[in-house]
Design a protein that fits this description.
Elements lengths: L1 E2 L7 H13 L9 H11 L3 E5 L8 E4 L4 E2 L4
Antiparallel strand pairs: 1-4, 2-3
Length: 73
């Protein structure tokens, strides 16, 4: 796990995260109300990490206040 300098989510980013939690689906099976409630609780401590490397899209990585962000290949 790498560390980045986190920043607070903007209101728009937080709204997008909450919308994804509230309405999103998975390919792994049903999303329960308990899942959504747990994710919303976790979202309260979510910060913005690195931006996408392309430099044109608004994609950000999600991290915690310490800057811990899982990296994928």
């Amino acid at each position: 796990m790498d560390t980045v300098t986190p920043r607070a989510l903007t209101p728009r980013e937080r709204g997008a995260l909450e919308a994804l939690i509230g309405w999103g689906t998975t390919n792994d099976g049903p999303v329960t109300s308990a899942d959504r409630a747990r994710w919303l609780t976790q979202a309260a401590g979510t910060w913005a990490g690195d931006a996408c490397g392309c430099g044109t899209c608004p994609t950000i990585e999600l991290t915690d206040a310490a800057g811990a962000t899982p990296r994928s290949a």
